[in-house]
Amino acid sequence: MNGDRTGEALAPLAAAFRTGERDPTAYANTLRDRIEARDPEIHAWVDGAISRAWLTAETEALLERHPRSDSESDAGDGADRPPLFGVPVGVKDIFHVDGLPTRAGSDLPPEVLAGQEATAVRRLRAAGATVAGKTHTTEFAYFSPPPTRNPHDLDHTPGGSSSGSAAAVASGTAPLALGTQTVGSIVRPAAFCGVVGFKPTRGRLPTDGVIPLSRSVDHVGTFTRDVAGAALAASVLLDGWDEQRAGERTEPPTLGVPTGPYLDQPSEVGREAFERALDSLANAGYELVRVEAFPDIDDVNDRHDTLVAAEAALAHGEWYGRYGDRYADATRELIEDGLSTPVSALVRGRRGRDALRDSLAETADDHGIDAWIAPAAPGPAPEGIDDTGDPAMNLPWTHAGLPTIGLPAGDVDGLPVGVQVAAEFDADERLLAWADEIAGAVRDAV
């Protein structure tokens, strides 16, 4: 299996729905058929397949709210319809969605986990999107894996924790999916599955209505097939989206390559793939500045891991006290570690986020760097589905809360690899504007 070439890019699909060139109901039925045909092997979707009745009802309700007038042509300009009109969205099963249970990949009773619909879901619906269904996640967005497989090779992991969302977009069974990242749960599975994963600046997309893992570093983000789709989704999801900033034409950014112990973490094939991507960028005219960053990467990693454990214990304290025997071993170990974490370590972890962000900004200023580029994962997706892979390459960017986008950058023996680009805090619009051309330069790196 080689991913899916019949899946469609979000932006042109949404435009066709708005103008009437495409019928959302017919597309929903097509998507349902794709899921029924492909998902028994991939397992991206909770319960194995999209519900025909659910999506049909969602689509019919949308068309009732936005009917086409009798005087309107079959292919109008779509100005009367919202930007994501008719677009089905896969939703990671830690987001609350009105009408669907939230299981969070766990054995806890769904009624215990229930809550108000997530802001991200409400914003997508307000923009005209329909919820296609829930996608598989590792238990509570940590490490205990779901049954999802990599669409490019079923014997390999799709990554995690947003396993189902990445696999759904890669398999062509969703044009857009929501995920979360607390360490590397958007950018890493995007790399493993050969799609685009976007994690906004911390705080620009509210996390309410999402079951938390670590409240101070949880991020909500998206999966799409290309950068244009990521930008379209961001325009309706992010607080304070500035269309003028997003549309500004700027010079290609100077890209910083963070040398030192951080870049010792990828595998040999991962480093070779990254260097090929850098060569492609250099050939395309990008200026690359190699500069040491994260000299204390081991301390950053430890600080982040301690913070996640401590905040997971806080978030899950009541549930764990009642249902601790239903948690998977990996999650139970995380929470137990968090319960024994001193308050001083929690405070240190939270303060470290801002310190790291300031340090990266200072280094970038000193060396004329506009954005950072790094491997999106240590290498291609590991074999097997009992492990979702190492998030080490994503961790410091998540810890600092910087906007980060993962871009496909060729493959190794048929398995996708990717790069990630991180911009300064709150520069999401600029990052997405840059990312389209960067993606074109590295897409077929050889």
From TrEMBL:
Domain Amidase stretches: 54-432
GO MF entries: catalytic activity
Annotated segments matching region Disordered: 64-83, 137-167
Protein name: Amidase
PANTHER family: AMIDASE DOMAIN-CONTAINING PROTEIN, TRANSAMIDASE
Domain of life per record: Archaea
Organism expressing this protein natively: Halobaculum saliterrae
